[in-house]
What we know:
10 helices, 297 residues, alpha/beta, Arc Repressor Mutant, subunit A, 2 domains, ten-stranded mixed sheet, single chain, D-Maltodextrin-Binding Protein, domain 2
Amino acid sequence: MISFDRLRALAAVSAHGSIARAAEALHITPSGLSQQLAKLEREAGHRLLEPRGRSVRITHAGRVLAAHADRMLSELASTEADLRDLHDEVLGPLRIGGVGSAVRTLLPEALESLAAAHPRLRPTVADGEAVDLVPRLLDGQLDLLLIESWANRPLFVPEGVTLRTVVSEEVWVALSVRHPLNGRGTIDLTELKGTAWASCPPGTEPHEALVQAARAQGVEPDVRYTLTDHITQLALVEKNLTAALMPAMSHHLAPHGVHFARLRPALRRDIKAAWTTSAETPPVRACVALLGGGEEY
């Protein structure tokens, strides 16, 4: 294997033009530098230097290897600079996972501000549900989550995860304007007995919150459409095929043929930022600060 220190020695000879000047720059003796270069030739399997009067000249193979060494040294210098800056600067990767409504509504403006303030930050985003995203956070695959917690089914996270509420909002029921209860300002879930429902898949926070809210009123919900996307749910609601529980931040997605009514008893949902407490990096702190906290919808 080629030694990195010996590559550094070759790059120095290439840059300074002689063994003597390269040795001075590296703070070693010329004989010590010559020994490193001789070992590098054996490692590389090529002649790297040839005599030129009282000095040496770099061969073609030496120039090729020196060019690679220069790139490696430059990358190493950049890496070392980034590591020195990690304690204070917002840079490097920031892997975000979030539920669709939060990603769509909250993240674009925050990411725009992050990009302007911290051009060395490299955010990536994946959408999903808490049941899938939390394990990825714990495994170190994600750095920050935007996940939901419903008032009647509070989100459970393991020890070592920090939660901060970013948005707290009321949840409404979405019905078609052709539904018999259209126009009502408040609706009890018992009045929707026999109505088909659209919700996220079983095991997700929205699905389980719907089931628990209905069962608390003595109703077993008929969930016929399992769809993670609110836009698709609302498209089916407009056609009077289903009802759906819809957080306030997704109301603007509704087509004209959808009516929203408050629930009795009322139901709320929080969007929470979540991150591993031991991995609270400057990028995580910067993003959470831009997302704010406690906003009402």
